[in-house]
Amino acid sequence: RQLNPKVSAFQRRFVGEVRRCEEMEKTFTFLQQELRGAGRVLGPCPDSPRAPLAREALRVQEQSEQLAQELREVSRNRASLRGRLQELRQYLHVLRESQRFTSLPAPPGSPLRPRALSEREPILDPSLHQHLDRKINFVAGVIHPWRVSAFERLLWRACRGYLVASFVEMPEPMEDPATGESITWVIFLISYWGEQIGQKIRKISDCFHCHVYPYPESEASRADTMSGLHSQIQDLSVVLEETEQYLAQVLDKVMLALPTWRVQVQKMKAIYLVLNQCSFDVTEKCLIAEVWCPVRDLTQVQDALRQGSYKSGSSVECFVQRIPTTESPPTLIRTNKFTAGFQSIVDAYGVASYQEVNPAPYAIITFPFIFAIMFGDVGHGLLMFLFALWMVLCENSPSLRQASNEIWMTFFEGRYLILLMGAFSIYTGFIYNECFSKATVIFPSAWSVATMANHSSWSSAYLATHPSLTLDPNVTGVFQGPYPFGIDPIWSLATNHLNFLNSFKMKMSVVLGIVHMGFGVLLGVFNHVHFQQRHRLVLELLPEMVFLLALFGYLVFLIFYKWVKFSAANSRVAPSILIHFIDMFLFTSNAENLPLYRGQVAVQTVLVVLALASVPVLLLGTPLYLCCRRRAPRTGCPAVRRGSRRRGSAGGAQWGLTAGAVPVQPVAAGEQEPLLEGQEAGSSVNATKEDVESGGHSPDAEHLDFAEIFMHQAIHTIEYCLGCVSNTASYLRLWALSLAHAR
């Protein structure tokens, strides 16, 4: 618990140590980025090291900063060497490729080559010097291939054609220092006349980020330059290789030490953050901390404090003392690898208050089953089940647990959830009789085509003109009883297959949804009984159940009643449940829609009146009761604390907790004397003396603000009444998505 709420985070006692930990974490982040840049993956810490002492922390800080400094220097040297080596190679390619543009004719006595009019004709032909009054100059370099066309066009326009530009691709690709991509650069050689044109060419080259290199005029100078470049490239390659080897050695040291350092610094930072939440007594000899701790873990806390005192060499042991309080403890729900996935789904909607019913155990069954209603298919469910089973059987594999892909980790952490979803999908797939959306004949069909054919005397001419034949269940022997399990496979051949499934799945979704919501509301019984708020059973739970069952429970009754009362013989005169349900809210009857039973209109009127009457009871019952109870004279009855609640999204299910918790106050060092002035030994830092004497219940503990209670109850009433309607309609997605999956 935070015992220094009025102290700024930058003014607390251990803020310097926290900053030191953050600086080390920044250094660790830089080291990890260097490892990632070198293509190395940092593994997890093989063991669980303890938090370092102050001297060890200084050693870790010094070593990490030294390694980071070495990496910075080596990386900087390697980058400069690579850049210099790339420039030398580009320069060498420029001289090689431009040699054929500026090469002189063969010496006398050698065989003459044929002269042809070509763009590749050497521009330093001596015969051309007779027509040139000015000296020819050159600009050579490399340019990005994407900029060649624009560069050439601008040169031509700016210099008005007083130049000769030649372009050729480099024989091998090289890395772009800006992006790191491998690019095939383009070599250019520009010959021009006049110094002003040369200045324009150089300025345009700079604008296009060209790498311009000096170009010797004579062929002998170019040959000497190329030989010098060869020797420089060899020397730089040797130095770069040694630099790479030294960098690999430094990275190996980082790989070995960084996982352990990160865990140690994280633990040390967590300790200092906790110490910043503690407070000192007036003598500044005792460090006081208030902690919520589960009752079953109290012995572990005491043992840990005892071991800490022994290892730190303290002459006085830390001690733990339970203190009374009126605050509601935090929620702790213990999970394992099987229940963690389901609990995280429940927590995504809201964490239950202390000691409320936890709906996660029920969600272990309801969540996969409701998913399977939408995903019912034996084949698809089997694939999902086998995939989850493989993850469960190989869950201890390091390659699966240490994967960095976020999507994969989501699947892996929910492997047991996917396993049950696949198993339930196989079950509902057998009910739907679908395997990869195809029906399977596990049992013989209950419909007899032969009996219908014998009864109808279908002729060959009739069969030729009627591609679809109707099986009448009213004919004796055509329908021999219900299919043993699931839907009869003959429905997959029927043209009215979709109409049949629409009616079946729509009613099934409504029935399951209302049962699910009713179960959620009934879970509130455990909360009301546990918190000794029995008035809520009458003023909240009863109106909620009346509202739900009088409207939507009656709808479920109509569905089953219609299924039972009407058979194939009188199905054509069966009334519409939807029209009856609409007339129920309008307090009318429809002559064209026959009633299902006698007195149906009167029964429906009474149910609607009961549902409407339950709303004001739900809205005003609890606030008025608490207001009257507060004004009543005290007779020594035990006070009842009003527990905070958070309701589920479907049906108002109240959520709860598993284990109890009590506040714990460990004290470090000092004698067992009053911790603060004006308080007795053992009292809480944020509890008064009267609170301790009254057992944690102050005289104002039962003070209830009527406006706040009424506002809370009004929000709950509106949410519940609208939720019953919207959630019932929302459960129809089971029908819609099931049909979409089958299609």
TrEMBL record:
GO BP term (any one): vacuolar acidification
Residue ranges, compositional bias (Basic and acidic residues): 688-699
Pfam assignment, any one: V_ATPase_I
GO molecular function: ATPase binding; proton-transporting ATPase activity, rotational mechanism
InterPro entries assigned to the protein according to its UniProt record, in alphabetical order: V-ATPase_116kDa_su (IPR002490), V-type_ATPase_116kDa_su_euka (IPR026028)
This protein's GO CC annotations: plasma membrane; vacuolar proton-transporting V-type ATPase, V0 domain
Source organism, top-level taxon: Eukaryota
Membrane topology: Multi-pass membrane protein
Coiled-coil features, chain-numbered ranges: 53-91
Keywords attached to this entry: Coiled coil, Hydrogen ion transport, Ion transport, Membrane, Transmembrane, Transmembrane helix, Transport
Localisation: Membrane
Free-text function comment from the UniProt entry: Essential component of the vacuolar proton pump (V-ATPase), a multimeric enzyme that catalyzes the translocation of protons across the membranes. Required for assembly and activity of the V-ATPase.
Family membership: Belongs to the V-ATPase 116 kDa subunit family.
Protein name: V-type proton ATPase subunit a
Organism per entry: Scopus umbretta (Hammerkop)
